[in-house]
From TrEMBL:
It comes from the Bacteria. Residues 28-122 form the Methyltransferase type domain. PANTHER family: 2-METHOXY-6-POLYPRENYL-1,4-BENZOQUINOL METHYLASE, MITOCHONDRIAL, METHYLTRANSFERASE. Keywords: Ubiquinone. This is Ubiquinone/menaquinone biosynthesis C-methylase UbiE.
Length: 246
């Protein structure tokens, strides 16, 4: 899931194969994070241009540090409301960046306005929590207050819900392709443990525990990660959708 610099590098082959970015395309990468997809989209877009947008200046700093291409620009903005200009892009891509909108219909309508007529959205999102081993194992190991669980990553996991949101936002031809892949947390337990503690949900769950329970939970997390050591890293089953819409 991560490398030491916090970049996710799983599931990327399937996503890149699905986005269909072509020479000359103008591409918007929503929630671009460290910019891995932004850079790969720029390579596919040839003489085109890619804008990576993110609400996190820290993530954009990572992205800028790794980016030399002039045909990429990064923008610190909320993609849900930012005025990108009507019809400014041919393709809008997002790897796990479009599940966190407070007003999803309004946000996707904003992204649709940013696309030219006939332009398309290609987004990778998590399937439901129940389909994702990592998303069950971590809170089950920590325990704690169920109210501290963060379900936002799974907000588009139900295809009927996601289709309803996208249709209400003005998109059509909505399709879902299932992707199941092993999710890589790190080469060893310690690295995986550090990576896990970058995630919002385990931090929130741990923060709600007494010091003694938190210590017990941290030991349990290490043991749970060790049980997922498959020899070539700490790996969990995962399930995502690649959603395309026009
Ligand atoms: C799970 S990370 C994925 C990062 C990157 N796409 C990747 O695959 O490596 C989600 C990213 O979406 C960004 N994000 C969440 N809501 C956003 C919004 N409304 N506008 C722009 N970026 C957003 C977060 O700051 C975060 O960097």
């Amino acid at each position: 899931m991560f490398d030491y610099d916090g970049e996710m590098r799983f599931l990327q082959g399937r996503f890149r194969g699905a986005w269909g970015v072509r020479d000359g395309d103008r591409v918007l990468d929503v929630g671009c994070g460290g910019g891995q997809t932004t850079r790969e989209a720029a390579a596919d877009a040839g003489r085109g241009h890619v804008v990576g947008v993110d609400v996190s200046e820290r993530m954009l700093e990572h992205a800028r540090r790794r980016t030399a291409e002039e045909r990429i620009s990064y923008l610190l903005a909320d993609a849900a409301t930012y005025d990108f200009g009507e019809g400014s892009f041919d393709v809008c891509i997002s790897r796990f960046g479009v599940m966190f909108f407070d007003d999803p219909v309004g946000a996707f309508a904003n992204l649709r306005r940013a696309l030219r007529p006939g332009g398309r959205l290609v987004a990778m999102v998590w399937q439901a929590r129940a389909e994702n081993e990592w998303a069950q194992a971590i809170p089950a190991t920590i325990g704690g207050d169920a109210a501290a669980r963060d379900d936002s990553p799974f907000s588009l996991g139900d295809p009927d819900v996601a289709r309803g949101i996208l249709t209400s936002a003005g998109f059509g031809e909505v399709t879902f392709a299932a992707v199941r892949e092993r999710l890589y947390y790190g080469p060893d337990v310690e690295t995986a443990y550090e990576n896990l503690l970058q995630l919002r949900e385990p931090l929130a769950l741990l923060a709600g525990l007494s010091p003694a329970d938190a210590e017990r939970a941290r030991a349990d997390l290490r043991a749970m990660l060790a049980a997922h050591d498959r020899g070539d890293g700490i790996l969990f089953d995962s399930a995502a959708w690649i959603i395309t819409a026009k």
